[in-house]
Amino acid sequence: MQPLFQQGTGPLLRTLFFVLLSATLMVADQRFNQLEQVRGFLSGAIAPLRYAVDLPARFLGWSSDQVRSREELIERVNALERENLRLRARQLKFETIRSENERLRTLLDSTSERDERVLVAELLSVALDPYRQQVVVNQGERNGVYAGQPLIDAYGVMGQIINTGPFTATALLISDPNHALPVQINRNGLRTIAEGTGEPDRLELRYIPNNADVRVGDRVVSSGLGGRFPPNYPVATVVEVERRPGEPFARVIAAPQAHLDRSREVLLVWPDGAERGDIAANGDAPAADADGTASPTRGKP
Amino acid sequence: MNPRWWLIPLTLAVALMLAMVPLPDAAAPFWPDWVTLVALYWAMALPQRFGLTLAWIAGILLDVSQGALLGQNALGAVIVVAFALRYHQRLRVAPIAQQALIVTVLLLLKQALVLWTSGLAGRAPQTPWLFFAAPLTALVFWPLLYVVLRDLRRRYQVA
To answer: SS3 breakdown of chain A: % helix, strand, coil, rounded to 5?
Structure first.
């Protein structure tokens, strides 16, 4: 390989060159967001390392499945069947309400809601910057994942994808101090913004006036106003309301519904109307994933 | 060209994997910066093979793996490796305890640079003092790493 520098170039000059190069990169990354493709490419290059680091955790899970006793398995299957029955019963009711809702909507001449497409992804257990709340999922651009895509788990909104590689994607959790999410209080539709605090069990609801009707236990759902998150997904529950007479706004703390630090299976959501062409191009068959865990599901129309 | 040069990228890749090992929240800030430690070893032991270019690439990959701003770790790694390259002859003959001390000081400098650039980018962490815990544990890990890498280097005759 041709050396980048001639032997004569002084070490000081070389150091200076790399320092300036790093500084330029940082500015380009922070100010202009120009480096998403470079980051995606490099992320693809280190993807094998990420999967290798995740292997021991995966193996432990697999071996604990292997040594589980028969009784335990039977018990689990029974529990899951009961759960399934309960959910099916609820689904029946839901279908009726849904068709009724659609009928009423046609009566009102408003557009009906369509289903969102979702894709099951797994978190890779790899450490990231311990001072930011991020996770890596095992789906990437190959499966149609895009930056800005919402990430949910079985309990609520988890976060959004901030950059994608070919095989993996990094998501910012709603608890990161740099994350803000437009939400509303389910009970009365009061709109506010849920900001992360850096702690996985606390979100701060901003700009709520002191005399606003907020109570401990109120459910907070996404409002869909930012255009990124689909509306009406559960986000958090209000746990603390402190009215401060001297300040214009009350201090309201909410606990996220999603299991931010426990969930391993998560769902990537394609909100209605987002990237329609992309969905068509990817079709309904992104299941051809390397490890076979991907299974796209589409709700019944 | 020495045929065994691949040991250097290989150890860097292993260091990158070590950096990605998930740890409980309480232990994570104390996990040493393996990539920079390995880079410092090679800069000290084989300055003719391991230059600033490799150190910079390792730093960029560390940035990507951690989701940091591209260039943060690269900047820190280049500066401390430049120092190690400049004084490699003195570092090499220093007793291992003294080496560990110097390495710790260099890592503290690197963490300060990363903290500073994070602050400039508006991503300052909530608990900045914890940032300086990792270099202090490097004080313990350096002798171990030094012995392992030295034996590997001698065994595979990387020169």
So the answer is: 35, 25, 40
The residues near B60 (Cβ < 8 Å, ≥ 6 apart) are: A25, A42, B70, B71, B73, B74
Q: Which chain B residue shows the shortest CA-CA distance from A28?
A: B70
- Chain A residue numbers touching B86 (CB-CB < 8 A): 11
Identify the residue among A5, A16, A18, A35 best suited for mutation to test binding to B, counting B beta carbons within 10 A and taking the highest.
A18
Best CA proximity match to A54, nearest among A257, A293, A297:
A293
Cβ separation A177–B20 shorter than 8 A: no
DSSP B100-131: HHHHHHHHHHHHHHHHHHHHHTT---S-GGGG
* pLDDT 10s digits, A253-283: 999 999 888 878 899 998 875 544 343 333 3
pTM of the model: 0.77
Containing B9, the helix (H) or strand (E) segment is helix B7-20
Are A53 and B126 a contacting pair at CB < 8 A? no
Rounded to two decimals, the ipTM of the complex is 0.86
Q: How many residues does chain B have?
A: 159
Helices (H), A28-181: 36-45, 47-66, 70-107
